[in-house]
Design goal:
Aminopeptidase; alpha+beta; transferase; seven-stranded mixed beta sheet; Phosphinothricin acetyltransferase; single chain; EC 2.3.1.183; phosphinothricin N-acetyltransferase activity; GNAT_dom; 4 helices; globular; about 35% strand
């Protein structure tokens, strides 16, 4: 059950690490292999804020249950209104509406900042992530074969997109 969704503060970074690091370590939901220290996350948050890309967190009575953020899809001014998103949930929050609430809040923030298009990149071995994005109104636009590598294996990347305008 989501109690609140708000912009993350430095005090939320341990909660974000507690969600993100097991996903990095134990799954192919991300192809990232380096776990995040609090210092890493502090620098990551500062960079997001410097680019006016806030990190949102969902909380319940027990603490942080998820986070969502977007960042420019590709470099250069021609892509200034196209963002890629990341959204991750604590295991206890999955299937409880937290992901949809975070996505709705992230879209609202993005629209208010002039974002035209949101993209997500989902591991081909994570069909639940693709289905989640589709339930949130995203369209599957491409599968990039064997572009991610983790655990000594190649993985496909499924790209999904939602036009916000």
């Amino acid at each position: 059950m989501v109690v609140e969704i708000r912009e993350a503060t430095d005090a939320d970074l341990p909660g974000i690490a507690a969600i993100w690091n097991p996903i990095i370590r134990d799954s192919v939901a991300t192809f990232t292999t380096a776990e995040k220290s609090i210092d890493d996350l502090r620098a990551w948050r500062a960079e997001r804020l410097a680019n006016d890309h806030p990190i949102l967190v969902a909380r319940d009575a027990e603490g942080i249950t998820g986070f969502a953020v977007y960042f420019q899809f590709r470099g250069g001014p021609g892509y200034a209104h196209t963002m890629e998103l990341t959204i991750h949930l604590a295991k206890r929050a999955r299937g409880q509406g937290t992901g949809r609430a975070l996505m709705a809040a992230l879209e609202e923030v993005a629209r208010a900042r002039g974002v035209h298009s949101l993209w997500g990149g989902c591991s081909g071995e994570n069909p639940g992530a693709v289905a989640f994005h589709e339930r949130c109104g995203f369209t599957r636009v491409a599968t990039l074969p064997q572009v991610g590598r983790k655990y000594g294996r190649w993985f496909d990347l499924v790209l999904v997109q939602k036009i916000l305008a």
